[in-house]
Amino acid sequence: METLDLLEKLRQEIDECDKKIVEAFEKRMEIVLQILECKKAKGMGVFQPEREEQILEKVVSNLRNKNFSGEIKEVYREIMRVSRRLQSKHLFPYNIVLIGFMGTGKSAVGKQLSQWLGMPWTDTDRMVEERARMTIGEIFEIYGEKYFRELEKAVVQDLQHGDHMIISCGGGVILKGENVEALKKKGKLVLLQAGADTIYHRIKGDFSRPLLKDDMSITQITKILDERRQRYLKAAELVIDTENKSIDEVCHEIILQLIEKGTCNLSADFS
Ligand SMILES: Nc1ncnc2c1ncn2[C@@H]1O[C@H](COP(=O)(O)OP(=O)(O)O)[C@@H](O)[C@H]1O
Ligand SMILES: O=C(O)C1=C[C@@H](OP(=O)(O)O)[C@@H](O)[C@H](O)C1
Ligand SMILES: [Mg+2]
Hints:
With 271 residues, this protein is an alpha/beta fold. The protein has 2 domains: 3-90, Chorismate mutase (Chorismate Mutase Domain, subunit A, Up-down Bundle), CATH 1.20.59; 92-269, P-loop containing nucleotide triphosphate hydrolases (Rossmann fold), CATH 3.40.50.300. It has helices spanning 3-42, 49-62, 69-91, 106-117, 124-132, 136-143, 145-159, 177-186, 196-203, 218-235, 247-269; strands at residues 95-100, 121-123, 166-168, 187-193, 238-241. It is built from 11 helices and 5 strands, in the order αααβαβαααβαβααβα. Residues 263-271 have low confidence and may be disordered. The chain has a 5-stranded parallel β-sheet with strand order 2-3-1-4-5, sandwiched between helices. The chain binds adenosine-5'-diphosphate, shikimate-3-phosphate (S3P) and magnesium ion.
């Protein structure tokens, strides 16, 4: 057979394979949505790591040519992430926005939630750093806090167009009313709380936070917390106490509370 004819024939075979894949994919996604209803009824989480491991093992064992084990695993990891994302899109049809004081776990919890729910994650501090090509510490040192707040505001304004994401905010995002307004357009604001003692113990070894660089103490944390408390509470649509809870436990609590709220007033707020 001529090379060009062969190429055409092989392409037709690929098209046939793709048709089957699309059919199977569509069916899989429909089943994924039915599973969501069962999980909801049983109070189960979207992310079931043991089940995902079993699926990976099963698809590899179904392979006739084991040379493709790595490839099939890669594809399936992505399929399972997309499945999680589809389920969480139905559960949480809005951005989940984490606010709260430094050290309450906004960044760590956001990252973990993103993994569990298959939702993309962004951190306003990282966005500011990327845009300025400087660390937060350098921005404060060279240009001062006011300039940092303007950069933070610009990032938040851009984020108001994002859909179905986890957004970890910098602790001072609530200092500007327009930030809160923009974040609420498509998001549910979840306040993470912790006492000054806990916060101090979580962040005492980390000097990347300029507001505490010269005075990393419980007294200084308490002072700034007191100044901001009302703003945090006013902005929050859901309040989560993180004291004596692991990062996983905080994530569970957020998911549970958001689902609980969803049955009463979320659909009205976020339709
Ligand atoms: N619930 C928690 N329990 C224990 N350590 C935590 C918890 N939440 C966050 N941490 C830790 O505290 C530190 C600060 O967390 P981070 O997510 O950076 O806070 P934030 O973004 O709110 O400033 C990190 O070392 C993180 O691993
Ligand atoms: O509370 C604040 O004003 C700040 C909190 C920091 O973020 P984290 O809350 O993630 O530490 C960072 O945005 C900056 O250092 C200022
Ligand atoms: Mg952070």
